[in-house]
Write a structure and sequence with these properties.
heterodimer; A: 124 residues; alpha/beta; 5 helices; B: alpha+beta; five-stranded antiparallel β-sheet; five-stranded mixed β-sheet; 14 strands; 11% strand
Chain lengths: 124, 775
């Protein structure tokens, strides 16, 4: 069975990018562009990894993270904060609330991202 | 019994009563005794004459004749006695004197008892009895006439020297006496001598007149101070008469209407009448008392009322001025004095000061002369009794010292000079607080003992009132002074307080301003943060997208690329990466400037390890350019306190900079540690720097030096500024040197081994070189 990843990301270009790359690498990719859908999808599709953007149009990624971790079904899924915000606070907060890691998009190549995902995604 | 006899009897009874009261009043005083004897003998005399006239048989007639002759003799003696002791002073006769006065009566007794000496016989005439006198009677007449004259002369003599109340009393007594004497001597002595017995009954009327005058004197001038007793007597007599009358009235009513006292209806009526009688008795009693008060004590009665009112007013006021006016005014008016005044005594610093508080009728200077020598003050304070001028002489006689007497005499003169007749002390707890000085009564009467009692009471009240007022004034003045003093003393404190309050207000304002500034800064901060976030996101996103797409393209997601395309794509990747790098640096600087990224100096790092790490990253680039990159360590390098990440940034920056501007040769990094610092030098064989480039190297402007600008479109000018700031944060120094253009450059970094000492150095450096990237 293919490993499943969930991207909670609002930028459509980015979405295309990641979808293309991850599917190339043999993942099943789902995405949601807001928190509510994201949480619902997490529960429904049960991904092995969630990439969570922090700057969403009407929501804060940290809040979504909190919601995910509150949810019984979703909380076990490793969630990574994946963003362009590089400030320490966000990173610390994220890690405090249960994110397993924190990546700045500009600082990590797609290749590295895929490699990390392969290593850390929860097997279904 | 004819009416003359009745009158004589009444006169005698009244004489006895008078004698009784006078004697009862003060039996120790010889004056009272003498007067009582005089009255008694007068009574006996009247009685004798009455009974002589009334007797029918010879033996009674003889007896009473003998009796009244004897009585008359005794009258003469007692009169003489009286005149000797009558005085405002206390006079006591010696026993031999008394003996001499009375001893002639023994002879009279003998003469009377012996038949034929005084009385030869008794004849009965149509108008009454008549006694025939013997040879002894002329001697008797002569002797007792002489006594009468002597006595009168005594009184006249006294009158000449008398003053005040004593004088008044004397005048009245002499007046009464003259009348009596006239009557008595004429009708009972002279006429008898010449054989006319018809008028002997008139003599006792003389005594009666004398009696009346004496009574009047008693009432008016308090002769022998028996007013109270006389008043009581009056009331008793009045009541007795009233009861007597009531009894007969009741008895008559009983007889007339109830058939007698012992009948049944009589008893019942009696039962009703009895309570009525008691009620009536009470009211009668009161009436009699008030009448007696009015007539016996008329002036006293008024005084009491007025002075009671005065006392009320005094105790309800605390205004000193009012009190003093009230006292002086009231006393003067009520007692009808010609002048009155008050002196107040204040004690300050041990000295006693007398101040005229109020005078009416006196001159202001009068009071001063009175207290000039302080004798009066100390005397009054000692005795605490009113001082009557008339009595000073007597006091003087009684007092011990020669000096006292002299001073008293002088005082008496002073008082006479200013017409002051009475000095009342006002005493509070044995301290003299003032003197009330009174003149004479307008009527000329003397001050009676009741007057003095009243004035005493008044002065006590006045003292209390005055003292209260004085204390009140003192407290009020003290309060004012205290208030003023407190105000003065606290003026400084108050001023300081005001200042402090102003400062506090300013501070509060400043604080408020600060708070607002802080709030605004925080908002600014937040907006900066927001800006930061948004900037980060918006700047980075396209670049990351680019990177991603390029990656995909290179990995053939969009079809297999040609070699040339791959090359181009790699260049694209590099360029994109550079953009990301610049943005990163920009963001770092901004956030550093905002202060979000503080330099952490709590850890000590292994410098060499850091160096190796840094160089590892840079060797690739150096290799590409075919220049060497060496690292030399001199001696041992201890662990230094530094922010590893930031320091790495700096080293990378500097070395990278050097590599960038070197085309041939290489870069040599040296590190050496001494006692205080770690010195790092990065030397290159590159393009070098001119002096002005050197100046502006670590300044904020993106000054990459002209030469550098020539070589590279993109530069790392920003990096040097940031490096400068980071090293500054480490309390270290960073600077560059160059021997000139084309002659290479050396960058020096000096880091302190111990942070404490270094902080001071940095502060000093900041003071000296304000805005310089060069530490």
């Amino acid at each position: 069975m293919k490993p499943i990843v969930l991207f909670i990301e609002d930028d459509p270009e980015q979405v295309v990018l990641y979808k293309t790359k991850f599917e190339m690498e043999g993942f099943k990719v789902f995405f949601a562009d807001n928190g509510t859908d994201g949480v619902a999808m997490a529960k429904e599709k049960k991904p092995g990894l969630i990439f969570l953007d922090v700057l969403l149009p009407h929501e804060n990624g940290l809040d979504i993270l909190k919601k995910l971790k509150k949810d019984e079904l979703a909380r076990g899924i490793p969630t990574v904060l994946f963003t362009n915000l590089s400030n320490k606070n966000t990173r610390d907060e994220g890690l405090r609330h249960g994110a397993v890691d924190f990546f700045v998009k500009t600082d990590i190549t797609l290749k590295e991202l895929v490699a990390w995902a392969k290593k850390n995604a929860k097997k279904a | 019994m004819d009416f003359r006899n009745i009158l004589l009897l009444v006169a005698s009874v009244l004489d006895f009563v008078l004698a009784f009261f006078v004697f009862k009043n003060n039996r120790k005083r010889e004056l009272n005794v003498a007067y009582a004897l005089l009255a008694t003998f007068s009574g006996l005399w009247s009685l004798g004459i009455a009974l002589f006239r009334a007797s029918t048989d010879y033996s009674s007639q003889l007896f009473w004749n003998q009796e009244f002759i004897l009585a008359a003799g005794l009258i003469a003696s007692s009169f003489l006695h009286f005149t000797f002791v009558f005085s405002d002073k206390e006079i006591r006769l010696k026993n031999w004197q008394r003996f001499l006065i009375y001893v002639p009566n023994v002879l009279v007794l003998i003469g009377v008892a012996t038949a034929g000496v005084m009385i030869k016989g008794i004849r009965i005439r149509s108008w009454g009895n008549e006694s025939v006198l013997g040879w002894g009677y002329a001697h008797y007449a002569f002797y007792f006439g002489a006594f009468w004259i002597w006595g009168t002369l005594n009184l006249v003599k006294k009158l000449l020297h008398a003053t005040g109340i004593f004088k008044n009393q004397l005048i009245y007594i002499l007046a009464g006496l003259s009348v009596s004497i006239f009557f008595g001597v004429t009708f009972n002595l002279l006429l008898i001598l010449f054989g006319d017995y018809r008028w002997i009954w008139l003599g006792p009327y003389a005594s009666f007149i004398f009696l009346l005058i004496t009574t009047y004197t008693i009432v008016r001038y308090r002769l022998m101070d028996i007013r109270v007793v006389a008043k009581r007597f009056f009331v008793y007599i009045g009541l007795a008469i009233w009861v007597y009358v009531s009894f007969y009235v009741v008895a008559w009513i009983m007889e007339k209407f109830f058939g007698g006292l012992s009948s049944a209806s009589g008893y019942m009526a009696g039962a009703i009448l009895a309570p009525a009688f008691v009620l009536l008795f009470n009211s009668t009693n009161r009436v009699l008392h008030s009448v007696a008060n009015k007539y016996f004590f008329v002036s006293l009665y008024n005084y009491q009322e007025t002075i009671a009112k005065l006392t009320d007013k005094l105790t309800s006021s605390i205004d000193l001025g009012k009190i003093v006016n009230l006292i002086v005014g009231t006393v003067k008016d009520v007692m009808k004095l010609d002048r009155a005044g008050i002196l107040l005594i204040s004690r300050g610093d041990g000295a006693m000061k007398c101040k005229i508080a109020k005078v009416i009728g006196f001159e202001e200077s009068d009071g001063k002369c009175l207290v000039r020598d302080n004798f009066l003050v100390s005397y009054l304070e000692k005795t605490q009794k009113p001082l009557v001028r008339d009595e000073i002489q007597m006091l003087g006689k009684r007092s011990s010292g020669e000096r006292d007497r002299g001073q008293l005499a002088e005082l008496s003169q002073n008082m006479k000079k200013i017409d002051a007749s009475l000095c009342l002390p006002m005493v509070i707890s044995n301290r003299l607080v003032g003197i009330i000085v009174l003149g004479d009564k307008i009527s000329g009467d003397a001050y009676t003992s009741d007057d003095l009692d009243l004035l005493n009471t008044l002065s006590k009240q006045a003292s209390i009132a005055v003292e209260n007022a004085r204390l009140y004034k003192e407290v009020r003045d003290f309060n004012k002074t205290l208030g003023r003093t407190v105000n003065e003393q606290t003026k400084e404190i108050r001023e300081q307080k005001e200042q402090v309050e102003k400062l506090l207000a300013k501070e509060t304002k400043a604080h408020a301003l600060e708070k607002r500034a802080n709030a605004e800064l925080r908002k600014l901060d937040e907006s900066k943060t927001d800006f930061m976030l948004i900037t980060q996101h918006h700047l980075r996103t396209p670049l990351s997208t680019n990177a991603g797409i390029i990656d995909l393209m290179i990995s053939g997601a969009y079809g297999k690329p040609t070699k040339k395309m791959k090359e181009a794509m790699v260049k694209l990747q590099d360029s994109n990466a550079k953009g990301i790098g610049v943005i990163n640096e920009l963001l770092d600087v901004s956030s550093y400037q905002i202060g979000k990224e503080a330099i952490r100096l709590d850890e000590k790092i292994d410098f060499s390890a850091l160096m190796e790490e840094t160089l590892k990253d840079l060797r690739t680039e150096a290799k590409k350019k075919n220049i060497y990159l060496k690292y030399d360590v001199e001696g041992k390098i201890p662990k230094i306190p530094a922010d590893r990440t930031k320091l790495k940034m700096v080293l990378t920056n500097v070395i990278d900079n050097c590599i960038k501007y070197t085309t041939k040769g290489g870069v040599v990094v040296t590190a050496k540690a001494d006692k205080d610092n770690l010195m790092i030098a990065v030397a290159d064989t590159g393009i070098g720097m001119s002096d002005d480039v050197k100046e502006g190297l670590f300044k904020r402007t993106f000054n990459r030096g002209e030469e550098a600008q020539k070589m590279f479109a993109l530069g790392k000018g920003l990096g040097l500024f940031l490096s400068g700031k980071i090293i500054e944060g480490h309390h270290g120094k960073i600077w560059a040197e160059s021997r000139g253009v084309g002659k290479g450059s050396v960058f020096y970094v000096e880091l302190p081994l111990k942070q404490e000492a270094a902080r001071g150095r940095t502060a000093a450096a900041k003071r000296d070189a304000p805005e310089s990237g060069q530490a």
